[in-house]
Design goal:
Length: 590
């Protein structure tokens, strides 16, 4: 503030001084010239008057033709009038001089004033440095007797001019302090207004409104503050609105299930939403600023976007790509669009990644299901057809053969009925339509019942079937028939896949907040890579050996356990080293 003030005062003051100096200088020059010419005119008129008076007196002395007379007269006149007086004869020769011997002067006609009079003028004027001369003709008795010249020093004229110059000089000397004073006064007034303006602006910048800014000051300052206040107010409103919009947009982006990647016109990522970071397995701060290729990590997808940028038409349906690191790859449907350009020739790129992994999987599962059902049906139906054809071809005539074929027909029809029954059951439990008939159930009882039902089968196969459970198994909220179905399936599988002499151990165990039932056998085992798949529909690890099953039992068991809020899983040390199937059920508050 202070520095600005000093600059203000200096520039204003010196500017004023310069202007005043130029005006005063020009004016002084003019006035001095005017005074000089006026003084010269006055002096000249005075000299002319005196010269004429003297010329009347000098006539007789000049007319005698005696230079001694003329010189005496010149000296006498010079003394009396206090001027320098010189007399010349009509031919311009000096004949008398008040300032000394006339002989040392040259011919008077060489001088302009004498020559003018000699040429017939009424008077002549000559200016020499420091002297003004005026010459007039001297007449005596009607004829020209000679020329008289008077001279006077110019000193009084110079003095008058000097006085004028001195006066202007003094005035000039005063312009600088005066200018500074003027600048100071102007600053005092304007500075106060500027400070008021600045204070008001500070108040506005701190969040004040035009109303809260103190009134006062000249109308210009008040108007400026009011205008700026209104401008700031509307700007603030706009910013608030933009911020609200931005927050809303951010919320939408954050909550969106689809991944969103935004890149600048050069293909550098400027933002990713949480869904995109999950899909692409990148951290948002890692993605920002990197190229799309580096963030998307899929060359096909990058190529697709490049084609979009080059304006090449894409496929009709939105294309599908695999993204994410190996092992966590997701299938995404991609839509690329471009925003309106802002500031540059091109707009930002908006890449929408719709996760269609589940849809694809569901589609695949459905296709597999249909294929599996047809496959499972084809074998028994073909067998039935062959049996019926054999019967028709004549076997029916032979009672023994007919009996055997009908027995085999029965086996196939039973198998088909079981498959259809299981399919129906699976569809029911999967769709959640098989309402569970839940009540407090003694799990140990249910397990023992199932084990005892399969004991004759196990005995026939030469297997040891053990059952272990603690004394205090608390009741679980469950559907006892469904639970028995699960245990039957697990134990039946163990019996099916364990060679004679093996052992099957069924254990009920109480754990934190749940009860676990496990069925452990010493049979065929399951290769580790197939473990996660045994609960899939129609899954059979070894199609030849499990010819009796449909591959649906474990899928049904899984759904029943999950419907009870429990978990089920399989473990195996590897092929030929037995397997363990375990399921848990949560313990109710009771
Ligand atoms: P299935 O009716 O064919 O037994 P499941 O769904 O019950 O159908 O079993 C699916 C597949 O899981 C079986 O075909 C078999 O390959 C494997 N499996 C199930 N239980 C065992 C087990 N205890 N030991 C070895 N493999 C088993």
């Amino acid at each position: 503030m202070r520095a600005v003030g000093v600059r203000w005062v200096l520039s204003l003051g010196l500017g004023f001084a310069l202007l005043a100096g130029i005006i005063l200088g020009a004016l002084g020059y003019q006035v001095a010239g005017l005074v000089r010419s006026q003084e010269l005119d006055l002096l000249q008129a005075q000299l002319l008057r005196q010269a004429r008076l003297m010329a009347a007196e000098a006539g007789p002395a000049l007319s005698t033709g005696d230079p001694a007379d003329a010189d005496a007269t010149a000296k006498d006149l010079g003394r009396r009038f206090g001027l320098r007086v010189t007399l010349f004869d009509p031919a311009g020769r000096p004949v008398g001089d008040s300032a000394g011997d006339p002989a040392r002067l040259g011919n008077g006609l060489a001088r302009p004033e004498v020559r003018a009079v000699g040429g017939g003028a009424l008077y002549g004027v000559g200016l020499e440095p420091g002297y003004l001369y005026v010459a007039v003709p001297v007449e005596w008795m009607g004829g020209a007797a000679g020329i008289l010249r008077v001279g006077e020093e110019l000193e009084p004229v110079e003095r008058a001019v000097n006085r004028v110059v001195a006066a202007f000089g003094i005035a000039l000397a005063f312009t600088v302090p005066l200018g500074l004073l003027l600048g100071l006064v102007a600053w005092a007034f304007a500075g106060r207004d500027l400070r008021r303006l600045a204070a008001g602006l500070c108040r506005l910048a701190e969040g004040g409104t035009p109303e809260t800014v103190p009134a006062g000051g000249p109308p210009e300052v008040r108007d400026a503050l009011r205008g700026l206040g209104e401008l700031l107010g509307s700007l603030r409103e706009r910013v608030d609105q933009l911020e609200a919009d931005h927050r809303r947009l951010q919320l939408v982006m954050d909550q969106m299930a689809d991944g969103l990647v935004i890149a600048d016109p050069h293909g550098n990522v400027v933002g990713v939403n949480p869904a995109a970071t999950r899909l692409l397995q990148v951290r948002p701060e890692e993605a920002a600023g990197r190229s799309l290729v580096a963030v998307l990590r899929d060359h096909e997808l990058a190529g697709f976007i490049r084609n979009f940028l080059d304006g090449k038409p894409g496929a009709e349906r939105p294309p599908v790509f695999e993204v994410g690191p190996p092992g966590q790859r997701r299938t995404v449907q991609v839509k690329v669009s471009r925003t309106e350009p802002t500031g540059g020739p091109d707009g930002h790129l908006v890449i929408l990644l719709q996760d269609v992994t589940e849809i694809k999987q569901t589609e695949q599962v459905r296709r597999d299901f249909v294929a599996n059902v047809s496959h499972e049906l084809r074998t028994p139906v073909a067998a039935l057809k062959a049996l019926v054809e054999t019967l028709e071809a004549g076997a029916i005539e032979d009672p023994d053969q007919a009996k055997e074929f009908i027995g085999r027909l029965r086996v196939e029809v039973d198998g088909l009925a079981l498959l259809v029954e299981e399919l129906f059951e699976l569809t029911r439990v999967e769709s959640g339509r098989s309402g569970l008939n839940r009540r407090p159930v003694d799990l140990a009882m249910v397990v023992r019942q199932a084990v005892e039902r399969l004991r004759p089968l196990a005995d026939r196969q030469g297997l040891h079937l053990l059952l272990r459970f603690p004394a205090d198994v608390p009741p679980v909220e469950a559907d006892p028939d469904r639970l028995e179905q699960v245990v039957l399936n697990l134990v039946h599988n163990a019996v099916k896949f364990t060679p004679p002499g093996g052992q099957i151990t069924v254990t009920v165990e109480r754990q934190a907040g749940e009860v676990a039932v496990s069925v452990k056998d010493t049979g065929a085992g399951i290769p580790p890579e197939l473990l996660p798949r045994v609960f899939e529909r129609f899954f059979k690890a070894d199609r030849a050996r499990s010819a009796g099953g449909s591959g649906l039992g474990l899928a049904i068991a899984k759904h029943i356990v999950q419907a009870h809020g429990g978990r089920i899983w399989a473990e195996s040390a590897g092929e030929g080293r037995g397997s363990t199937f375990t399921f848990t059920l949560p313990l109710g508050q009771s």
